[in-house]
Amino acid sequence: MARKTPSLKQKSINLDFYGLSVLINFKTNVKSMRLRVGKDAKITLSMPFYSTQKMALSFLEMHRIWLENTYKKALLNLPKDDEIKFLGQAYKIKFDENFKEPFFDGEIVFTPNLKSLERFKKTRAKELFLELVSHFQPFINKPIKRIVIRNSKTRWGSCNHKKGYINLSLRLIEKPLSAVRYVVLHELTHLLYPHHQKSFYDFIEKIMPDYRKQEQILKA
Length: 220
Known about the structure:
It is a single chain. This protein is of the alpha/beta class. It folds into three domains: 10-76, no CATH class; 80-112, no CATH class; 119-219, Metalloproteases ("zincins"), catalytic domain (Zincin-like), CATH 3.30.2010.10. The protein has helices at residues 53-62, 64-76, 114-140, 177-189, 198-207, 211-219; strands at 10-17, 20-27, 34-37, 43-48, 83-86, 89-95, 103-104, 108-111, 146-150, 157-160, 165-169. The strands form three sheets. Strands 1-2-4-3 form a four-stranded mixed β-sheet. A four-stranded mixed β-sheet has the order 5-6-8-7. The radius of gyration is 24 Å and the shape is elongated. This is YgjP-like metallopeptidase domain-containing protein.
């Protein structure tokens, strides 16, 4: 007699594996075991629905060294002290799976996981960058065809003056607003002056007399 397919498509259990919390998902649409350590350092093992806990433990034991090393790396990449910087201010992060999307109450950022937090930062950064570009564009009077946000760690921004493209680093959202304004103006000015000669900085100084102070803030 054929076994009936259960109406439940997924079941989950939490398992302690040598001090590591592993979420095991038994799924009907999974044919092989998949072990994953997320950017938020959460460990997930996906298994075929009719697998057993004993099979899960055996699989984890086989991959124990990889799991422990990968988990340690993920911990190192977590925000330090569970804080996030936003426009020069530090705010506490609270990871809470009861929140489907990040929520900011003015003091604490609640987020289900690190991936959602990164999306939240990028959305806020995009809104701010577009607002600042709109503010400075009348001074430039040049078409801006594309604004790209990158997770760059080596530069705050760049400009392709021939194509009218502006690239801005996601990390800018951590800096004070005055410094963010400077970077946006700096890159837009390259549409007029594709160099760093005196005329370039003379133009910036007319719009932002304290631009040198903003450069120091970015270096801090």
